[in-house]
Amino acid sequence: MIDNTDLVRMLDMLCPMYLLLNEEGVITRVGPTLQKIRPDRELKGERFLDLFELARPRCVGSFADLLNAKGGKLNLSFRDARKTAMKGLIVGIGGGAVVKLSFGISVVEAVRDYHLTSADFSSTDPAIELLYLAEANSVAMEASRQLNLRLQAAKISAEEQAFTDTLTGLKNRRAMEHVMARRASGGMPYALMHIDLDFFKQVNDTLGHAAGDYVLQQVARVLVEETRREDTVARAGGDEFVIIFDHLTDRPRLQRIARRLIDRVEQPMRFHGQSCRISTSIGIAISTEQPASDPLKLLGQADVALYAAKRGGRAGLRFYSPGMENHDPVASVEVDRARFG
């Protein structure tokens, strides 16, 4: 014979989410896991139908009705704020009943909400396998997420490297052409400033390529400092730079920027105790002043204006105007020449 103590110990081990009910439907014993999910509420002594709301069977008005329900299968949830859905089976015994409960498909949410572990379930409960699968899936999803993040970071890094000049940290020619094409396709007004360093070869020939690299880096810093965040500063190659000014087509303002660049670049740069002295010539083309929006054509016009500035004595700036390609000395240009002393 099994006494009540042995029965309780057996139920605690085999189905830790059980209830023992007396003949009035009052709870006389609660399984450890079931009590754990309501730690602040003493379930023993409560009426079963006051504690749970039944979805199946329907139309149960009394404990007797519940015992007489066909099959004894239950779909129910707590009546209080956290309405955890559960499945159950009720079996009449000695005038009372035993109710075995489980979380069913909501076991993962229940484990999360109530901080349950495998020790809260019977070792043969299928929920254990489901928990292991859920954990394995969670680990796999996290690993996949981390891998995707690394791949995305690697992609971004590769794209940045592909568009970056390694010496100066500026955009390279490829990036410059990409930005220009995007501006042109979007119909945005913009201006191009083509910048070439005067006397740079002399620095390389007399002080070496390390000094030349230093000069290029210092010029890049000046260009960034004298432009806005929305502008694009690129090293087009060698000692040539291009600045793309978004939504800036005002000639006087562009002229003031170019003058500041010329003045700052002319300041002597010290490299290992040696003075590196250069100047810069600047050609400017404005998208709204040209009938065609072809960015490469606009860049060619800025290049024409640049070499017109060089022919004018260097350390100066010129805006592109029609006829400048023919070296017309009376072409309508604006000149701001600073002597290189």
From TrEMBL:
Its EC number is 4.6.1.2. Gene3D superfamilies: 3.30.70.270, Haem NO binding associated domain. Transmembrane segments: none annotated. SUPFAM superfamilies: Nucleotide cyclase. It comes from the Bacteria. Residues 188-322 form the GGDEF domain. Keywords: cGMP biosynthesis, Nucleotide-binding. It is an enzyme of class 4 (lyase). Signal peptide: none annotated. GO terms for molecular function: guanylate cyclase activity; nucleotide binding. Pfam families: GGDEF, HNOBA. NCBIfam families: GGDEF. This is guanylate cyclase. The lineage of its organism: Bacteria, Pseudomonadati, Pseudomonadota, Alphaproteobacteria, Rhodobacterales.
